[in-house]
UniProtKB/TrEMBL annotation:
Record keywords, A-Z: Membrane, Metal-binding, Zinc
Compartments in which it is found: Endosome membrane; Late endosome membrane; Lysosome membrane
Signal peptide per UniProt: none
Primary gene name: LITAF
Highest taxon listed in the record's lineage: Eukaryota
Annotated source species: Ceratitis capitata
Protein name: Lipopolysaccharide-induced tumor necrosis factor-alpha factor
Length: 136
């Protein structure tokens, strides 16, 4: 009986042999800089050693821009869309204290109905990311 050889067996062996060949790592930044400046300059063209690297300025974006009690237009730091924030009001311990103080007057539910007595949490309407809180 004849032994069948897989048609890609020789190609697989060649690929494994190529992958096992050690290669030199790429040169470090300082090594490449010395290689560039060591090259002789050609007449007429600008010299590589005289070229200046551009200056880069890093600008830091505030991940949580200031928000107010109402919806705020801003760029979402998560999805990078220009959005108008979605506001969800949440009760805090101050809301509950106001409720207890107003309990004797019969208006104990009033702090829960007023947005000024609750915190305003801002969310992105596109991706749902939390943007910030306005504490009242």
């Amino acid at each position: 009986m004849a032994q069948s050889i897989h048609p890609y067996a020789t190609i697989q062996a060649e690929l494994q042999a190529e992958q096992n060949v050690p290669t030199a790592p790429p040169p470090a930044y300082m090594q490449t800089e010395s290689l560039i400046t060591a090259q002789p300059s050609t007449g007429g063209g600008p010299s590589v050693s005289n070229m200046q690297m551009p200056n880069f300025v890093t600008t830091y974006a505030n991940p949580n821009p200031p928000v107010g009690p109402k919806s705020t237009q801003m760029r979402c730091p998560q999805c990078k869309c220009l959005i108008k924030s979605e506001v969800r009001h949440r009760s805090t311990w101050k809301t509950h204290i106001a409720c207890l103080l107003l309990c004797c007057t019969g208006c104990c539910c009033l702090p829960y109905c007023m947005d000024t007595c609750r915190n305003a949490n801002h969310f992105c309407p596109m991706c749902g990311a939390f943007l910030g809180t306005y504490a009242s």
